[in-house]
Protein 1
Amino acid sequence: MAINAADTVWILISSALVMLMTPGLALFYGGMARRSNLLSTIMMSFFALGVIGILWVLYGYSLAFGSDLGGFIGGFDYLGLMSVGQEPSSVYASTVPHLAFMVFQGMFAIITVALITGAVVERMKFSALMLFSVLWLTFIYSPVAHWVWGDGGWLAGIGALDFAGGAVVHINAGISALALVILLGRRRNFPKEVTEPNNIPMVVLGAGLLWFGWFGFNAGSALTADGLATSAFVATNISAASAASTWMVISWLHRRPSLLGVITGAVAGLVAITPAAGFVNPIAAIPIGIVVAFISYYSIVLIKTKLNFDDSLDVFAVHGMGGIWGALATGIFATLAVNPGGASGLIEGNGMQVLIQLVSIITVAVFAFTGTWLLGKMVDMVIGLRVSQKEEMVGLDLSQHGERAYGGSLR
Amino acid sequence: MAINAADTVWILISSALVMLMTPGLALFYGGMARRSNLLSTIMMSFFALGVIGILWVLYGYSLAFGSDLGGFIGGFDYLGLMSVGQEPSSVYASTVPHLAFMVFQGMFAIITVALITGAVVERMKFSALMLFSVLWLTFIYSPVAHWVWGDGGWLAGIGALDFAGGAVVHINAGISALALVILLGRRRNFPKEVTEPNNIPMVVLGAGLLWFGWFGFNAGSALTADGLATSAFVATNISAASAASTWMVISWLHRRPSLLGVITGAVAGLVAITPAAGFVNPIAAIPIGIVVAFISYYSIVLIKTKLNFDDSLDVFAVHGMGGIWGALATGIFATLAVNPGGASGLIEGNGMQVLIQLVSIITVAVFAFTGTWLLGKMVDMVIGLRVSQKEEMVGLDLSQHGERAYGGSLR
Amino acid sequence: MAINAADTVWILISSALVMLMTPGLALFYGGMARRSNLLSTIMMSFFALGVIGILWVLYGYSLAFGSDLGGFIGGFDYLGLMSVGQEPSSVYASTVPHLAFMVFQGMFAIITVALITGAVVERMKFSALMLFSVLWLTFIYSPVAHWVWGDGGWLAGIGALDFAGGAVVHINAGISALALVILLGRRRNFPKEVTEPNNIPMVVLGAGLLWFGWFGFNAGSALTADGLATSAFVATNISAASAASTWMVISWLHRRPSLLGVITGAVAGLVAITPAAGFVNPIAAIPIGIVVAFISYYSIVLIKTKLNFDDSLDVFAVHGMGGIWGALATGIFATLAVNPGGASGLIEGNGMQVLIQLVSIITVAVFAFTGTWLLGKMVDMVIGLRVSQKEEMVGLDLSQHGERAYGGSLR
Amino acid sequence: MKKIEAIIREEKLDEVKQALERESYFGMTVSEVSGRGRQMGIPLQWRAGEYRVDLLPKVKIELVVLDEDVSNVVVAIARNAKTDNIGDGKIFVIPVEGAIRIRTGDVNENAI
Amino acid sequence: MKKIEAIIREEKLDEVKQALERESYFGMTVSEVSGRGRQMGIPLQWRAGEYRVDLLPKVKIELVVLDEDVSNVVVAIARNAKTDNIGDGKIFVIPVEGAIRIRTGDVNENAI
Amino acid sequence: MKKIEAIIREEKLDEVKQALERESYFGMTVSEVSGRGRQMGIPLQWRAGEYRVDLLPKVKIELVVLDEDVSNVVVAIARNAKTDNIGDGKIFVIPVEGAIRIRTGDVNENAI
Ligand SMILES: Nc1ncnc2c1ncn2[C@@H]1O[C@H](COP(=O)(O)OP(=O)(O)O)[C@@H](O)[C@H]1O
Ligand SMILES: Nc1ncnc2c1ncn2[C@@H]1O[C@H](COP(=O)(O)OP(=O)(O)O)[C@@H](O)[C@H]1O
Ligand SMILES: Nc1ncnc2c1ncn2[C@@H]1O[C@H](COP(=O)(O)OP(=O)(O)O)[C@@H](O)[C@H]1O
């Protein structure tokens, strides 16, 4: 098929939008950490733009989207962008240059790696994080992306729906975060002391950039600029709005309407709609958003206060649980009226789709958990996962990076 | 008419740009408030992305753009996005999915509500603001949007020109702000103490995002990606540049070239060109920008220093007066050479157009003022508009939201 | 040729992206300055959006792109946007409105002026900077832009390749910065005291916005939305990623992986790929990025520590040297396979291209250096370049602008 | 001479400042501090649930005054910083043995 | 009454706070300061190369206590702020001649 | 021992620091404060018009020194912080009854 200029603009600008999400995430996370770990938290996301960005073009894209090997992984045909050029791919996104599809997908890989880091801030060694991230991209992200989106991937084969990365991005990152949290252990003084966010306006800015970029993430995943992209765009906005409002109400019932709550809700809503955006009626994003706010809110309470897991910035509760709900919701609300290339869901009488979604959730979760555990253990044995007690006390900005966030004549 | 992919990209990306303006505004306003009201100021804008975002799809869009009832309001045909789908609307934006037009318009409703809040920061109860905003969307914004942009709206009918919301957005918000200021009264210690902005770099960032988003706001309002959109884009940039430079000069004449002045000027320039962008020659944006800087500058002096109205962040002076000048300027500079669907203005010999613009300014202003006054009074009677003296002293971040902007080991 | 809607969207959104780079740069630079010069540093970039924005439409565009006078400068045919309208230009960007090409180019002029200011922060008078900038736009930027990109420009004529501004923007700004540094002299206490960045998260935010905007800068320079734009987009991202990773490694070898290093590397990578983006294979961006990190890193060491030039925010090392390397690299890696409108480079056996690039580097460097020196001297004689010792000590925020960044009840 | 150190609520600074001004005590040095006392901290909201912050923002005022002015100043501060709620703060009086005005070199009583 | 001023490492604040709490010294005022001493500063990274910062962030704790509590408090702080590395900080004891609790008007011993 | 508290201009900190260093007074604690005195504040710009800020940023230096070093230190600070303009600041001398170096447990004279 020939290149369509409008679709090309759409994928390029969507790629730019998704790229911006990683600095957005860096600030979103950074603002919630302690001041003495602010730069280190930002670095944990930002470095992915560099390192993962390069590995993706060297071999990541090939592993995920190269020609299928047994439904499980892609081959080496696209190593180093070999035969990925200005012409469209024969199997993906047939109206835009193959390079455009490749870079769009690369932005997803980058931010998925960055998402995980929220769980391990304030105590994980930077060298360990780097090594882990490289392994994780190779052995977890690329295969899972292949299963779901690769031509011949087995989850795609059984009919699992994942529009923009509920399983590939959010469940994957959220469950992996949980495994790392368990391996890594709690921060000093947790849970006696809960970190007070050092800079909530920075968190707001990050959330604003995430919301903005998420339009590229979800609506861009239509890969064409048409009614479907529009529908996904609208569903995305509705879900964010709905979950933000709901979280505000929940926090109000508990005490007072919280700004941190509103923006956390917005992010949770964006997570939940991710797999569903192009399969459900936009108005279905209202219940999807409402429910995810409750799920993520009470997951935080459960994980942090009851189970005492130190998932520092709530990656499991927001991305893991939010992604799981989103994948299920896709099975419930999907309708062919919105996307003839999709499927009918439970509400249209196809309960089967929920089961398929369940299979995809469980396999991705189990694979991500086990894989991350093994990779994490390995890294721990080779170079150690945690900074020393003393480094943790001084803060990772100075101890890992030799920098501090705010300098000046006095400090 | 069939969907045009390029136009669809244009409206989607413009919608994303306008969405980003609300977090931008939140930071723009937040940086000018006191530190103890920083989060509360941000929240006043940010909550609109949630609450107004949902109400818009539930009924706001229908009231504004549903089938006309007597030129005054839209009907209920689009309630809950009923029959708003992937096909183009029969009356609006015929080359893009109806949903795209809907969401683009929704972003306008959100930011208009947020704009008002700049006048009431540091003293208005959050619950009262929420209630007021919901009522205002319903009874003020939706009808006025219908009058001007709705198919069958009476102001459109008499030929009033408002390309991207001079009347609907800026006059509407600015005048409503004034009414609220009068109802609400001054902040404690005003005008003896003028708030010193807690964070001017944050204001700069907000202004940068506003300027960036405004390209979507104004050029997106062409609804097609063509020469007209381009012309509106260029006019927008010129007006911002011209007013920013002028304000710099004014502040220099008074004392020193002020950064806060440059960015306030830029915003005023963007306001003034909003109604005119697609009707005037781009070069006409130079005088439009120069004049608005003077008007807004001296309006601030008049309102704040002479009349002692506590319009905290100058919403009336910048948006109200800027919007009024913009609407008039549209009547003066409009030319069919730029937009054959527009009209000739005073300079091309059609003095009538200025009168029509005047009618639209006056009706919108009177309606907004009276309506806001009544709604405000009502809210005051039901739950009270203002926080208590003590809450005001402690700051609204703690008293309304139980949060503070900058935490950390010490504070 | 007729207007293509997709190309129009592409140029408009690219213009918006490049516009956002200037506030991004303002924050990038601002965060690296002292707190008492934070606003002044921001102002030095932000004012260009106003003043240069206006001068560009008044005469800058005409000087650069008006009908050729001897290969050296453009004529006055486009003064005040005369005959620059909604129709495509006959010589530039034939598928989009002429106004779109004009405004896209305007954003380049604005940011180029802003780039220079990083070298002179904390000591240059604002009035002198303004005057200098106006002269520089007129006598340096516009001619150089004409040589390289103007129809009939002599550097274009000899076949010099500069896709998005390696010579016009980066070498030009970097070399001019050096000349100003020499004219202006060092900051008080330099090099005994090196400024500690007052706010590294602000630098990160700025870098994030720059990276994001650079997609418009480089890929937008294709002027059409096609495979070439995509290829430039991908090359841009790869070079940024590659240089960011390399700089991280260099800083790690010296001490610890530095966040400031990663983002400086990213910017250097973006600079280096600028002239090459649309002429080289995307994968060639890996070596281009690696090499520029070394070049800029050791240029900083050389300039600052060995030569004791106070190029405050390293404009020469990052933009000047980065741009020079990028221009050479274009001559080395260019291939007709990517862009049939380009040329073959050294690797494809055309060593000549490197020579041509060298000619363009040297002429632009010599012209920029001499011109800036003369203009700077002139400004110095008329109003003086530097603030007084005392003003420098108090900080330029208060002394030049009567403002301070962070206000509040106490400070 | 004595140094009077008062730890008061942030929001009371303006009133105290004005009160001192009325009694013509103009010179003072102010800083941002955090404190705890009987006021056992306040709860703040996390994304879900809440946490307690026990060091609350306060303002510290320092004035060096002549011995005979001490009671005057203390009373002015105490009266204007009071809200009758826990957390109003404390005032301490500390001996000062010498003072210099840097600009003029004036010492002791003349420096204040 | 004495004022105890301790300049300690930022990261030791929590432990010191808790130690004082255990001994029921609850009231205190804390501020962010920068200091230098034997610890000759630390090197930080610039984009290329590095630079030395000689004023390092510290925390200053101020408590006014009764004369008989001084040694108790000093010991509690010293023990908990210690890391045996250069930069651990100092404690100073300064005489206080008067104190007032603003809320109640209680003076001196009763005010603490 | 005495504590010397000097309130000086921000921009003079470096010079004062270096002067003290030259005379080998290395230990000190510095903090950001705001002050007012004869300097009646400065006007800043709002978007239109201006407003007056009366608490201006200053830097507070605290050094504890031996009695015999007091005049030396005071002179060094005063000389280097001086600009002859209003707002140069003040120096106060306050008695100190005890000192401890946390790292070693050294007390009093040995702790400084
Ligand atoms: N013993 C003390 N030493 C130093 N500062 C104290 C002491 N007790 C209280 N403070 C300061 O006074 C502030 C208010 O004290 P608090 O006990 O909360 O109020 P109240 O005096 O009304 O009971 C505290 O936040 C702290 O900064
Ligand atoms: N003479 C002094 N006067 C005031 N503060 C001091 C003095 N000496 C040290 N300090 C403070 O104590 C802190 C730690 O002192 P330092 O000499 O680095 O550690 P140590 O006491 O372990 O040798 C310094 O950062 C400074 O804030
Ligand atoms: N009586 C005082 N007590 C405490 N601090 C004071 C006093 N007087 C002045 N200061 C501090 O000294 C600073 C400079 O004082 P100022 O009167 O402006 O200058 P000068 O001493 O040159 O007349 C003030 O900003 C304030 O911080």
Note: The interface with chain D takes residues 36, 189, 193, 390, 393-395, 398, 401-404, 407, 410-411 of chain B (CB under 8 Å).
Protein 2
Amino acid sequence: MVSDFQPTLDVPVQALLPFAMIYGQPMAEMPLDLYIPPDALAVMLEAFEGPLDLLLYLIRKANVDVLDIPMAPLTAQYLKYVEAMQASNLELAAEYLVMAAVLIEIKSRMLLPKPPAAIGEEGEDPRAELVRRLIEYEQMKLAARSLDDLDHADRDFAWVEVWVEKSLIQRLPEVTLDDLKDAWLGLLRQASLNKHHQIRREELSVREHMGIILRQLRDAGEQGAPHVRFESMFDLTQGVPVLVVHFLAMLELARENLLELSQAEAFTPIYLRLKAMSMDSEVNFDYGTIEG
Amino acid sequence: MEPSKAKRVLEAALLAAQQPLSLRDLQSLFEDVLSPDVLRRLLEELRDEWRDRPVELLQLASGWRFRTRAEYMPYLERLNPEKPPRYSRAVMETLAIIVYKQPVTRGDIEQIRGVQVATQIIKVLEERGWVDVVGHRETPGRPALLATTKKFLDDLGLRNLAELPPLEALNQTLELANER
Amino acid sequence: MEPSKAKRVLEAALLAAQQPLSLRDLQSLFEDVLSPDVLRRLLEELRDEWRDRPVELLQLASGWRFRTRAEYMPYLERLNPEKPPRYSRAVMETLAIIVYKQPVTRGDIEQIRGVQVATQIIKVLEERGWVDVVGHRETPGRPALLATTKKFLDDLGLRNLAELPPLEALNQTLELANER
């Protein structure tokens, strides 16, 4: 069980890279017997993640089996580092001292004669708990490295995020009949509306046709023929009720002085045109010439 | 670097960029300087390669950028549905007056609403294609007469205005409501 | 919708996505339901189409997303001279313990690492969105139980924890090493 804890020149399993740079020189392994300058100690202290990390380093460097750790030399070496660090007044985490105590305790327990083991049982090795922790920690340490080797977002790759221009699509408000009704009710509530604002269905139809007629005449005017024959204003396929409404709308427009009806003489065609058009069309228009 | 490889680098950078990349930005991708001419040519080739794809490479004032094509927006919208916007009360009341009292002038609307009607409000309805000018009233100033369009009826699923909620019934509801 | 058109819609949505899109997200792009089988087939076709391009389509824990291939990162990094810092060993070891032993308390992590775990370390991982509190252990002090998130898997290009590199069986390696 006892083997000499002789540091060898073998490359330590986990120290393939220099673990610290001291005065610009890579330090591949810890100077053991030389005087260690306090600066270097400070760098070393930072290089280790804690006492387990330091212990693993010492074990791997000596190339000994973690399941059969020679406790005496390991403890001696560990204490040497800790003492050196304390001597340099470095702020040593309490965990390092706790670990020192643990090592010393294990070492002394191994010197004691083994208590008689129960039949069929092997007495527990005083190092068992330490070994379990060392193995578990090393496993996590290696896992951390393989996680680090995976491609990380933003470090090893970038997400694709093509621009979406929201304004390319214009969202138009939706309006329902209820919205219109509510708006009208809102107006009524404002109370300024009196009876004549009540609108019957028939009137609404007439109003719609007023718009239709005005559009017909406007379009005719835009096409250079502002005068439209009365008959051509009616779509006979739409049935009598619509024709009546259309005619009523026409009369209402004439009453509101929005269109002008004209007839050159009796029994000749009747023409309509927008009242507004008379403002900018020739005054002395000869209706007779249109006939034909 | 091979131009074809450089083009792929440009493509990767532009696809991942969160803002337009200027020519100078794109230059900085390469250790060896790429001449502005070569860079521009590669970008144009890239734009052509993407011509028939759902994403397009655009040259904007501040640089080059990929953008999803407008025709895909209706689908993309469904991923993050936003509440449709609503018209303000002023717009809705103006619309209601034009609907029920057409043809009306802006003055008519102002008289009924009791407040000035901002040009913007009429414009919103005109741009929507719901309202247009059908003539002018022969009074001083010749104010425009506004009426609803066929598109308005179509968008509201109506065949004609007579299908609108009748106002008589509305007014009665209101009177009843006020009596209570 | 034609499958070829549906594929282009998927492509547009995935290229523009700001996080991985789940199958459910992708379904919602279409008005007519696309069967999960068809959807999956289209996604696989899309992934194949992008095989030799500088950007790849990946299936991750929370869905599908495009990302640039690792070989293009050295170029892209030049755009942002501020390199994201590599995490320290302390952060990576803490992460490894949370990943492989989850759910764990801070005390568990300290036990394994043999040193105190600074609050800052946990905070770095939480702020990255890689780790969060999933509960509390019913022991004195009710310490928080930490676990990894879907974002962690997404950011490492994984679909689930089973895709992580397996833990090395150390005892055996050691014995073999000694036998030599």
Note: Chain B touches chain A through 59 residues (CB under 8 Å).
